Amino acid sequence: MSTSTLRTALVTGAGSGIGRACATALLKEGWQVVFVGRRAQALKEAIAAAGADGARGIALPCDVSDEHAVAALFENVRERCGRLDLLFNNAGVSLPNTLPDEYSAAAWRQAVDINLNGAFFCLSGAFRLMRAQQPGGGRIINNGSISAHAPRPGSMAYTATKHAITGLTRAAALDGRPFDIAVGQIDIGNVASDMTEKMARGVPQADGSVRPEARMDMQAVVDTFMAMARLPLSANVLFMTVMATRMPFVGRG
Fold first, then answer.
1. Which of 3, 57, 66, 79 could form a disulfide with 52 if both were Cys (CB 3.0 to 4.6 A apart)?
2. Catalytic residue among 88, 158, 225, 249
3. pLDDT by residue (tens digit) across 100-142?
4. Is 103 designated active site?
5. Which pTM does this prediction carry?
6. What single DSSP character describes residue 195?
């Protein structure tokens, strides 16, 4: 597709953090972007801060853990935008440091419902649109985590769901081949944001100590994401890891 052609992207968790930063970058590169999240006001503020008009920046509140709400979301996108070229499956939740026997069933289900079920519902909705539209195809980028490969202490629910995202990515990449649907995953480690302020102060390590960890600027994540988003559908980055150089990941444990 030519960069002069209006392409449509949908970003979940677009009201803050990584989702907002990546959705904003897409807008600035000329995409039409559907900002999705739980809080309508946060979505509208993100679009306004990006300087986008209502035609190219669209705020659609949705709870991704609700399969019916997600189905309605993608139907709305089909009616308003006509097609979908990119899904950034970014919405997720992390839980406080918790030992396996201390998780409540409700907390466990919350992590699974948002991080895994929500990602599947959105991937399924995007897949359906991308298969049916003309010309067919599109790109899906799942937000995994370095926890998909090495857990932190007390992170069983988050780690299990992110391992599952890796399986979701591999299976969807295979199933998408006949339809020109490229599915990949970005695994992010220690980006500077409000959610990671505690890392600068000190977080539990595998050896039982509590130590501060290095963080990277959000722009590094945006640049990596955009490199994946710009690829032609004939090419795919199946897995990409971007992380703070000095964070304890390689050799963690």
1. 57
2. 158
3. 999 999 999 999 999 999 999 999 999 999 999 999 999 999 9
4. no
5. 0.94
6. G
